[in-house]
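ok trying this again, last paste got cut off
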Amino acid sequence: MKKIIFTLAVLLGLMAGAQASEGGIAWDKAPKKTNDMAALQNGAKLFVNHCLNCHSAAYMRFNRLKDIGLTDQQIKDNLLFTTDKVGETMKAAIDPKQAKDWFGGNPPDLTLIARSRAGAGGSGADYLYTYLRTFYRDETKATGWNNLAFPNVAMPHVLWDLQGVRTPIFSEKEELGHKVAVFKGWQQVSAGTMTPLQFDESMGDLVGYLQWMAEPVQNTRVRVGVWVLLFLLFMTFVAWRLNAAFWKDIK
């Protein structure tokens, strides 16, 4: 019986290790920027300039960006690269057939990506914030890039000019008789146009925009929800006192 229990424990440990390996590294906590208009505007610019080339946001219209403080003219002058109309949806510039030939599949729509990628490691925003910052050179891949949060990803590092080229540093430790690689940090191979701090800040802005795009009314929902709860709390107190007044003479 002891041998059976020990064997099961070892198998469970190996399975857990394999799952952790498949899931990549632990996710970093994304900064909360859905109330920061300047950050959302910068995130929208990054999204249009770097993401909309391949990824669509087919459930978001350009004129909805007025909710984050942009005017129609600002949208026309700075963000309309894939259409001429402010009322159009955000469609990718890439041809789907070409995308399938280049990447093996059509890049996914990003309208709801910040909500769909939540998991045991954290929120969808945490995943995206980690994913966007953990690309590294891998010459064994067709694109020349790999990712710690999404191993063997087909997407190249489209933001490498901002971040520069980095390589991960690993150390080895032994777990259950097996050597496991543990991520220790990064080594900068070549500099980008941004410092590491600036790049992390920009990725926080981009992720904040993706969060906002997934539910543009979320901040309004939260504000209204607080007032609704306060109203219900007040009415509960009123109902409690009325009930006490109605029944005070009845024993």
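PB: full thing came through this time. The radius of gyration is 24 Å.
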